[in-house]
Amino acid sequence: MLLVEDVAKRFKSGGGAVDAVDGVSFEIATGTFAAIVGRSGSGKSTLLGLLGALDSPSAGKITMDDVDVTALSPRGQVAYRRDRIGFVFQQYHLIPDLTAVQNVMLPMEFAGRRTAERRARAVELLDRVGLTGGKQTRLPGRLSGGEQQRVSVARALANRPSLILADEPTGNLDSRNGKRIITLLREFAGGGTTVVVVTHDRGLASRADLTLAMNDGRIVHRKSKT
Ligand SMILES: Nc1ncnc2c1ncn2[C@@H]1O[C@H](COP(=O)(O)OP(=O)(O)O)[C@@H](O)[C@H]1O
Ligand SMILES: [Mg+2]
To answer: What CDD domains does the annotation carry (predicted)?
Structure first.
């Protein structure tokens, strides 16, 4: 269970301040495929960053299963991100001079896994996301956008996260490849894994179990499929 209670994030800028997230509360049951929608500037990325402990809220509390995310030390945040969270970004954020398989191995190296285990799991994950054979040993620059995003999904799964956070993962893809990525992310939700996708594609959002709509830092609408 992901529990968000009265969470706010204020950024100071120049003389003023922006309430990027302005007092949001919601819960997402474990295994849910959830979408966050809303126009640009509504606070979606900021909220996702708070859920993933990339940043700390100005107020409120976030609890992920048994972890009070908002009480973590900076070190605790690093371990939480490494062990519990898988991130997928619009721009893929792959390391350009590592091959696909090496990119997927990297989070496992940070988690202290042995090389043979890392390589075997990276190959298995790349197979699962549909990047097979010789493409696995290519550099990101020699893969299409859709293929690079599949590598980043495999990387996000490397340490068996309980929460996958994807910020506009289809933003740079054509609709066919976008659909494939959403289908893939959907497949990984369930069991102990929750997936939260930020998207402003209403069609993609309609495939989610739960949709949260944001406006001006607030959740203005919540729609559950069940
Ligand atoms: N690091 C930051 N410093 C100052 N303002 C920020 C920062 N990050 C985001 N904001 C502001 O917070 C608001 C929400 O931004 P963001 O979370 O990126 O929205 P979205 O992802 O929905 O487009 C915007 O007004 C944005 O300009
Ligand atoms: Mg954003």
So the answer is: ABC_MJ0796_LolCDE_FtsE
Q: Is residue 127 part of a domain?
A: no
- Testing ligand 1's pocket by substitution, the residue of 7, 11, 91 carrying the most ligand atoms inside 8 A of its CB is 11
Q: How far is the centre of ligand 2, averaged over its atoms, from the C-alpha of 38 (Å)?
A: 9
Q: What is the 3-state secondary structure (H, E, C) of the chain?
A: CEEEEEEEEEEEECCEEEEEEEEEEEEECCCCEEEEECCCCCCHHHHHHHHCCCCCCCEEEEEECCEEHHHCCHHHHHHHHHHHEEEEECCCCCCCCCCHHHHHHHHHHHCCCCHHHHHHHHHHHHHHCCCCHHHHHCCHHHCCHHHHHHHHHHHHHCCCCCEEEEECCCCCCCHHHHHHHHHHHHHHCECCEEEEEECCCHHHHCCCCEEEEEECCEEEEEEECC
Q: What is the pLDDT of residues 103-157, one digit of tens each?
A: 999 999 999 999 999 999 999 999 999 999 999 999 999 999 999 999 999 999 9
180 belongs to a structural domain: yes
Q: Atom 5, ligand 1: which residue's CA is nearest?
A: 11
